[in-house]
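Tutorial, part two.
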Amino acid sequence: MTQTTALRGPLARPVLALAAAALASLALVGCGEQGGKGPATVSAGNAATSAAPTSAAPTTPPGQAAYEAMLAKVAQTCPPPGEKPAAPPSPAAPPKGEQSVAPDGSVPSQPVLDGPETELDTREWCVSVQHEQRVLEVLQKVAKPTPATVRKALNGLGYIDAHIHDLAQDGAVVSFRLDLRESGGRLCETGTAAGEESDIDPCLASATGPFTVEKTWKRPA
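Running the prediction step on this input gives:
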């Protein structure tokens, strides 16, 4: 039987000490390599995070392109924007030397013109009529209107939710407003859905910012 000779005596301790030191050095080298990889991974992650956009771009309302196409189609028979309607003719002046006098002896002032034709351009005035006709035709077929059915009817005509405002029910009547502003215009429509009694009229919206109605005109029956 072969026997292994073991180191004994005074020489054994220095040899064991050297072996332990060598093993410790190898362990430190391994740890250093692993530690070196860690910061690189974190740095890459930080770089990816810093490259991400800090703020999201404004989003376009769903269906906006189709809505704009609908507006263009409705207005295709109307004049280009920017033209103001011709002022109505002034009343005939009395013969020279004569002047109209009220019963109380005062001279009546000239009437002040105030209507959509003074605040909307020719295109908007024309477009408002086109929108009113198509909306009325559909709403008169809604027998028992609710905010949901009115919204659905308006959606079916191409008016998207972003431009439908203030849907509210009062008994059998549903009121609503349409924001039809485009290219700096101020046209809007305010209406009521009540079956055959439905109605809609032009209004003047805020020039900029959130949609608000500043003035409404009642069309003659």
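Residues 98 and 104 are 17 Å apart (CA to CA). In part three we will examine how such features are distributed along the chain.
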